[in-house]
Design goal:
alpha/beta; 204 residues; globular; 5 helices; seven-stranded mixed sheet
Length: 204
C-alpha cells in the first residue's frame, strides 16, 4: 500500500531527463538490460516501469502503485501477459498521472503542472522507442476520480498524433465508454483499435 505523504508540489521533483540518464546506468538493485525504471529508486512518483525489447507496447494506466523491477503488482503482471499475447516482446507502463497512490482516491486534488510536464516528457520518450508506437489505453472508470486526468490524456493524444501512434483498448469498451483496466482481463484478451479522439470528444 502506498499512501502519499504530501502533495507533489512540496517535493523536489527529479526531472525526467536526468532521471532517465540515471536509469540507463548499471544498478545494484535490478538488471538494467531487462528493466526500464524511471526514476530508478522508489519515490512518491514514477514516470516509467517496463521491460526492454524490440517491439514494446506502451500501456497507460491512471497512476502508479507500489510496483518496481522484479516486484510487479497484479496489474503489471496482467499488462505483461496481455502484451505478450498480442505479439509484443515487452511492455512499458506509463500513467496519466505520475503520483504514486495505491488508492486513486488518495491522488492529489489539483494537478501539479510541473509533474505533468515531466510525465509528458516521459511519454514522448516512450513514443520515440518505436517507429510505429502502439499505445494501450487501460485506465478504466478510475479516470473519473479527478477532473484533471482527462486533460492530461488530451496532451498525450497530441503527443501521439505528432508521431503517428496507434491507440488500442483491451477488449470492448466499458458501458461508461472508458477502456478496461487490465487487472481482471483474461490473459489472452485481444487489443482492438481505439478511436481516442472520438472518445475525448464524448468525455469533455
Amino acid at each position: 500500500m502506498h499512501i502519499p505523504q504530501t502533495t507533489t508540489d512540496a517535493l523536489d521533483l527529479e526531472r525526467f531527463a536526468p532521471a532517465l540518464e540515471a536509469a540507463l546506468q548499471p544498478s545494484p538493485d535490478y538488471d538494467v538490460s531487462r528493466w526500464l525504471y524511471v526514476p530508478n529508486t522508489y519515490s512518491e512518483y514514477r514516470y516509467i516501469l517496463g521491460t526492454r525489447g524490440e517491439k514494446p507496447l506502451i500501456c497507460i494506466g491512471i497512476n502508479p502503485s507500489t510496483a518496481a523491477p522484479d516486484a510487479l503488482d497484479p496489474t503489471l503482471k496482467s499488462v505483461e501477459r496481455i502484451a505478450r499475447a498480442n505479439g509484443y516482446d515487452s511492455f512499458l507502463m506509463f500513467n496519466v498521472y505520475a503520483q504514486r497512490a495505491t488508492r486513486p482516491d488518495d491522488m492529489e486534488p489539483v494537478c501539479n503542472r510541473q509533474l505533468h510536464d515531466e510525465n509528458r516528457q516521459a511519454f514522448r520518450y516512450l513514443l520515440s522507442l518505436s517507429p510505429k508506437p502502439a499505445v494501450w489505453a487501460a485506465w478504466g472508470n478510475i479516470i473519473e476520480k479527478r477532473g484533471y486526468l482527462m486533460d492530461c490524456v488530451r496532451d498525450f493524444l497530441a503527443d501521439g498524433e505528432a508521431v503517428g501512434a496507434r491507440w488500442y483498448t483491451a477488449g470492448p469498451l466499458l458501458k461508461s465508454g472508458h477502456p478496461h483496466h487490465p487487472l481482471y482481463l483474461r490473459k489472452d484478451t485481444q487489443l482492438l483499435p481505439f478511436e481516442i479522439a472520438a472518445y475525448l470528444r464524448a468525455h469533455p
